[in-house]
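Amino acid chain:
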Amino acid sequence: MALEKYFLNYNDTIASISTAWGEAGIAIVRLSGPQALDFAEKVFKGIKPLKETPPRYMRNGFLVNENGDHLDEVLGVWFRAPKSYTGEDVVEIHCHGGLLVASKCLELLIDQGARLAEPGEFTQRAFLNGRIDLTQAEAVLGIIRAKSDEALRAAARTLRGELSIKIAEIYDLLLNLSANLEANLDFPEEDIPFLPSDEVLKKLNQISTNLKRLISRCNVGKVLRDGIKVAIVGRPNVGKSSIFNALLEEARAIVTPIPGTTRDVIEGMIVYKGIPIIFMDTAGLRATNDVVETIGVNMAQKAFREADLRLWIIDGSEALTQDDINLAEELKTHPHIIAINKADIPQIVSPDDLREIAPDSEITVLSAFDKLAIEKLKERLVNKLIKHSAINEGFNATARQIEMLKNVLSCVDNAIASINMGEPEELVASNLYEARYYLDRLLGRNFDEDLIHAIFSQFCVGK
C-alpha cells in the first residue's frame, strides 16, 4: 500500500509541545521527520552541534532566535531512525517549564519549516513506520488515560505486544487451515495431504475457544480502561441520592424528603479495587406533568439504556407499586442488582416479595448509613460484570478491537456450522478468509484513512 495515497504530508518534519501546558519543571518540544536535526540546529546552540553529538546523549545549550539572542538554557537530544519512537529522526528540546518559552521554541521551529503536528501524529508515524501495530498504538492512549494501577498494567501488557501475539497465533491457525482447504479446492488433482472434516472441525472449535477467552480478557481490559457505568434507578424518594452519596463517600447529590428533588443526572466516580466505577444518580422514574421533572425522567431513561449495570433502589419501608412491577419487567433483559434500602427502619418489602416479580435478580438489603453494607454493594457491582481474579489478565482494549474479535468469532462459528450441516467447503473457506480480514484490520495490516483518523484524532497533540 502506498502510504502517500492516504497521508499526503507523511514526509513532512513535524513539531509539537509534548508536555502538558502550564508551569512545570521542564517543557519538551519534539520534532520528527527527515529534517528534524537540520531545523533543531537552527534554534539550538551548544558547545558542539547536535549532529556531532551521539544519538541519545543530552547536550547542554541555548535556545536562540533568528538574531542569535539567548532565550533559554536548554537540553537537546536526538534519536536516529529507525531506533526512535516514530521510526524517524527525532529531536527533543527540553526547555524550562512555562507557556511562553515552550511556545517560542515551537514557533522558531515552525519558522524554520517544520509543520505543527496533528493530534496523535507522532504515534501515527510509529505505526506507519512499522514500530508498533494498531493494537499497540491504541494502548498508548490507554496508558495516558489509565485511572488505576490495574488499568495501567493492562495497557502496558498490550503495548508490549502481548495482545498482538495472541491475535497472530489465531491468525496463523486460520491461515494454515485456509491454505489446506483452498489448495484442495483449487488443485484437486494434486497430491496434497487432505485434512478430514472432523480434523478441521476440531481445529476450528479450538480457535473458537481461544477467541472467546481472548474476548473475555479484552472485555476485562475495556472495563479497566473505561470503567463501569452504573445507573442508580427507582421511584422518587426511595433513597437513590443517599445511596449515591454513600457510594462516593461525599455529599454530591441533594437529599430531601420531597419526591422529585433530583431533576438531572449527577455523575461521580470512584476507583474500587482497581476498577473505575462511574455512578449516575437519576431522577425518579414515574409519570409526571411537571415539565422540568419530565426532562429529568427522560434523562434517567437515557442513562438506564446506556449504563453497563443498573442498580435498582427499592424503599423497603413502602409497599411495591405498579411502577415497581413495570421496572422489574424492563430490567429482566439488562444486567442489574436490586437493593432494598432503608434497612435501618421497619421493613414492609422482603427479598421474597421481590423474587415474585424478579425471580432471577440478585437482591441485597442495606441502608445508606451502613458503611459495611455499602462496601459489600461495591463488591457485588464489580463481581456482576467481572471476576476479580481476571483483572490481572486483562488486555487494554477498545470497543473497536472487541468488535473486530467478535466478527472473527462469528466467522469461525459460521464455518463450524457449515461443516456440521455438510455444506460445501467453499463456504468454510470463505468464512475463514473473512475472519483473517478482520484480524488484519485489527492489527492495522489492512486499513484506510477513516480508520486511522478515527483512532489517532483521540490523542493529544504531541503524542
Remarks:
- The chain is about 45% helix and 15% strand.
- Residues 66 and 245 are 58 Å apart (CA to CA).
- Residues 1-8, 258-262 have pLDDT under 50 and may be disordered.
